[in-house]
Amino acid sequence: MSSVSKKRPAQARTRLDRLETLLTTAPVHVVVIAIALLWTLPTAGLLISSFRQPDALLTSGWWSVFVPPFDPAQFHLGNYMNVLTRQGMGQAFLNSLIITIPATVMPIAIATFAAYALAWMQFPGRQLLFVVIVGLLVVPLQMTLIPVLRAYNSLGLSGTFLGVWLAHTGYGMPLGIYLLRNYIGTLPRDLIEAAAVDGASHLKIFTRIVVPLSTPAIASFAVFQFLWVWNDLLVALVYLGGNQNVAPVTLVLRNLVGDRGQDWHLLTAGAFISMVVPLVVFLGLQRYFVRGLLAGSVKG
Amino acid sequence: MAHIVFERVTKQYENGFVAVKDLNLAIEADEFLVLVGPSGCGKTTCLRMLAGLEPISQGSIYIDGQRINERSPRERDIAMVFQSYALYPHMSVFDNMAFSLQLQGTPKADIQQRVQAAATQLGIEGLLDRKPKQLSGGQRQRVAVGRAIVRNPAAFLMDEPLSNLDAKLRVQARAELSKLHKKLGTTFVYVTHDQVEAMTMGSRIAVMNQGILQQVDTPQNLYNHPNNMFVAGFMGSPAMNFFQASLKPDGDQLWIEAGALRLPVPASVQASLQPDLGQSLVFGIRPENIYDPQFAPPGIHPIDLEATVSVVEMMGHEMIVYLSLVDGHEFLARIDPRSRFQPGETVRVSFDMNRFHLFDRASEQALV
Lengths: 300, 368
What we know:
The complex is a heterodimer.
Chain A: H1 2-50, H2 54-59, H3 78-85, H4 89-120, H5 126-135, H6 142-155, H7 161-184, H8 189-197, H9 202-213, H10 215-231, H11 234-240, H12 249-256, H13 264-285
Helix pairs in contact in A: 1-13, 3-13, 4-7, 4-10, 4-12, 5-7, 7-10, 7-11, 8-9, 10-13, 12-13
Chain B: E1 4-12, E2 18-27, E3 32-36, H1 43-51, E4 58-63, E5 66-67, E6 78-81, H2 93-104, H3 108-122, H4 137-149, E7 155-159, H5 167-184, E8 187-192, H6 195-201, E9 204-209, E10 212-217, H7 219-224, H8 229-234, E11 241-250, E12 253-258, E13 261-264, H9 267-273, E14 281-285, E15 290-291, E16 302-314, E17 319-324, E18 330-335, E19 346-352, E20 357-360
Parallel strand pairs in B: 3-8, 3-9, 6-7, 7-8
Antiparallel strand pairs in B: 1-2, 1-4, 4-5, 9-10, 11-12, 11-14, 12-13, 14-20, 15-19, 16-17, 16-19, 17-18
Helix pairs in contact in B: 2-3, 2-4, 3-4
């Protein structure tokens, strides 16, 4: 009897609690959804525009497609066909991949090694070196364009893929080392020491323990670097020049718009095509963004 | 099996803190040596210097006569079990145990067989495919030990390997480690702050305090004949009772006077105490050498005195009684559970004067 009478107010309380939770979280949800909508609006506009007729695109805004009567016939795939069959687009895609993949892999490889050394190896000047590298984060890359280009010209690297790889590697390295060192530095000391006592050299500790346990940080940096290089126009334009044989997608897209910017039905479609690759990369790396990688090692 | 020698080893950190000072210690091959002391006493630092995880500031460490100061951990042929176990979280139990063998380039079939044997020995052969996070605390501890024994190293170093286990499991693991030591016959160096672990497992115990080695001896000798007040107070729970005291002669008899206490010195040790007449001393007696006169066993040398009971803790198999003398000095007694002592009562208790300790107050060194 007493247990029943005790239960009722408890139930009422949970219902009240739920209402209270709803009331307190609802504004947050509304704000989050509003921000998300606002953020996707330009992309949605871009997507809709890419399917519209060039004439319609120039005479009315993308939101006019929602004005009744709704006419499916106003959409077509012509813009996409046009972009894909245009001279140089296929080559540009290939160039972008040739540029981006090494320009992502190289800084990751170097930065991970450097991060391990800065976090776990004892050598004089270690802290100073790290501070200098972090300091490089604030140097704007525009400052380096002229001296590097002059150096490339005298070394014969301008207009080559190698030149762009090296440039992107250099630009990405400070952030990479900073991110990875901070992550690798938080790995439990006991793990590194256990491996050392088990007979592992620094290289073995790095390859067998540190790299497998650092995949979330490495994957995050890979996404950053890939997106940055893939979307980069400035570095490619400066170091590759106008050479169409090595031009990446960003350069070709810029040329698609036309001299007076009149062809932006092509730009919208082209932009969407170029967005596919980073999206695939992000989704592909998503499985490495996992929590709890260290569970079971040193804590209960 | 390895013979390990610490020769005048000192560890000073960059900030000037001296963690270990002038340590001389020889560890016999096949010995189970326990390094014990309060936290911050330098015991773990000793172990880490031996493992090669911490550089040695001064002095030398020898393994089988070879100076190993400059050798990296992997050149020392030692295995270590960490307090946190430090299992590789991304590897299966099998790979955790096989890791060191793989690094040595041991043939696969050999690895398979040795890991299997070690796992069977520790009762974890069913867990070989699991990841560390799928294991309980006790299982992880076994894997950590297993990872050490597959290598068949010259010495095992253990840094408080049982401190993360619950009380019941700890008692069980203690016995298992002792058995393992007997079976393997290898040198074990075991660090703990728990004097029960030290007493139950060690063939010899090295007590450290503030970076200085206090005493090395068998558990029994350490308990019965502590070198100084620190060792006397650290080993044993509840700790030894101390009273400020001095020696006074009265005719032929020597008396220990400590506030309200006046205790006759047994004839057997009177002669050896003559030089300490008039010195400032400390009288020490363990709680289990104080009895309720009703239940005092035969064969002791009982001296009765009055004390007031303040707290009684009934443990079932024994009673811990907090007592105070007329002068207010408090001490503990560990007495027979059948005793009827009640809080607030003034009772008579017996000190066994065959089992007392005297220390010099200034140097804290033992006299008898």
